[in-house]
Design goal:
- Strand 1 and strand 2 form a beta hairpin.
- This protein folds into two domains: 48 residues, no CATH class; 70 residues, 434 Repressor (Amino-terminal Domain).
- 30% of the residues lie in helices and 19% in strands.
- The structure holds zinc ion.
- The site of zinc ion has 8 residues, from helix 1.
């Protein structure tokens, strides 16, 4: 854990408002602002992403990133040429070629068809979290530049 102001590495960070911005600061820097949380922030808190109720989760289906290799490998293991494979799946040979080179990502419905035919996994469930009030004020600039700390 690092202090947002001076960059010092410390186990004990405090949540504080400094010049109108919410920051995690070390004990020394905390006196330049108003401490919100008096207890030091535990490192573990950052890992609590499975908290129930809070973030809204949405399951979306995505094509696996290595779909091209998976399709090609399986097609070749079946001893099928691209042309034959295209014919059997009633797709264009050029489409199969583009998919296997990774230049074209199949739609979910096409991926499902190829999954079924090749008996491989091409679609994954992806959990998307919708965080409330995601943008933080600290983004985009260095707070240390804006605040002059008197020593
Ligand atoms: Zn500090």
């Amino acid at each position: 854990m690092q202090c947002d102001l001076c960059g010092a590495k410390t186990e004990n960070l405090f949540r504080a408002i400094v010049e109108g911005t919410e920051l995690n600061v070390c004990k020394d820097c905390a006196k330049y602002g108003k401490i919100i949380e008096k207890k030091p922030i535990k490192v573990e808190e950052k890992r609590q992403f499975t908290k129930p109720a809070e973030p809204e989760k949405e399951i979306i289906q995505v094509i696996v990133p290595d779909f091209a290799q998976r399709i090609k490998k399986k097609r070749e293991s079946l001893g099928l040429k691209q042309k034959e494979f295209a014919k059997k799946t009633s797709e264009k040979e050029s489409l199969i070629h583009n998919i296997e080179t990774g230049s074209f990502e199949p739609s979910i419905s096409l991926a499902k068809k190829l999954e079924k035919f090749l008996k491989i996994k091409l679609i994954e469930d992806y959990e998307e979290e919708h965080k409330k009030g995601s943008k933080t004020k600290t983004e985009g600039f260095t707070v240390g530049d804006l605040i002059k700390i008197k020593k």
